[in-house]
Design a protein that fits this description.
44% helix, Phosphorylase Kinase, domain 1, 386 residues, alpha+beta, Transferase(Phosphotransferase), domain 1, 2 domains, Prot_kinase_dom, five-stranded antiparallel sheet, 15 helices, protein kinase activity
Amino acid sequence: MSKEQDISQPPSAIERSPSGLSSPDHRTQLRERSRELSQNPSPIDVLRMSIPDKYVYIQDAGSGSYGHVFYCAPKEYIHKRSSVNVVRSKAVVIKVAKRAEDDDKGFIFRNALAREVETAGYFHGNLPEQRDHEDLSLADIFDYDRSCLDELQCDWGCFEAIPSGLTLWTLCKATQRHGIRVTEELSFHFMRQITGALDALHNLSQDGIVHRNVNPQNVMIRFPGRHPSRLPDAVLIDCGSVEFATPDLVKEDIKDTFGMLKFFNKAGWGCDVGHGTQEKPICSKGYLSGQEAYDKSSDMSGLDTSLHSPEWLDLQQWLSKDHIANADGELKAMRYRFLPWTKKWQQEAVDRGGPSPKSLELLRAAQQDANSLSDDSIRAVLAKFE
């Protein structure tokens, strides 16, 4: 992919994800349905106007800066003989671009969704046949429609669902709420997966792509994971801000990633910003808008080093780098440096048959705060087809 080639038209994405709204008759039906609704339809109305009949809405999944997200399932799996587990395993998330009265803002929303669709399609469409589990750490795209109808403004994309609803952010909040610490097992495993996905993005094709929005809310946790250890997977989402890579943008991506990982690794240990004190409760806006977490990330005061392995302390120092000299090699160097320790934790999980009890305790506690795909919501949908 060269810079002369428009990133909005990756052949692999088009081939893997044919448009869901290609029929003129279907477009006419949508226009008629739109006239029946008010001038300001709800997000669920927009969803129902947008997606073809092959998808069935299950429940809301959340809302981002440029789109509303819903748990759905292909209609072929919604019938009286289907089960909750089958529907859960086939569930997808559909993101619909937000409507906007202002044309410029509407274009921004649609363009952000288009970038996310194109990046996921190009990423997964160009993976080598022999791929590591880290290569799966970017949400896949299955279907989409970008041919926005002016009066509807309802472009959409159908992505891989993460039914747990967990993010790094909900894990961080759970450490404060339930007094549980992040385990080294999760620290090293997530580090390798997130840096692996970013490294693949940065080296995708000739020019590479940068994420530009790496933060704890944009890393979802697939649990159980697909790695043989059954450790949870860290999955990057929300690629609406991607751009072609430049050395400066790659450094910015790496800095954001290092700051996020260090912030997460210290969660629950009483030494990180926003944890362990009532005066400075954890705050999403404070983390995302300010640099406090990054500025103080190298401060190890108050940390009982006897509670951590030398490798964990080494990782924290590595993540505290103020200067990134070689953007192209930084992620590879860190992954190689800590590979033996990462594999040690993964092998212990393989031998055990899953995450450690402490990791499971944190994951289950965080699940209480997550917007997960509900069995009750699935049953309610299935009941309509009995």
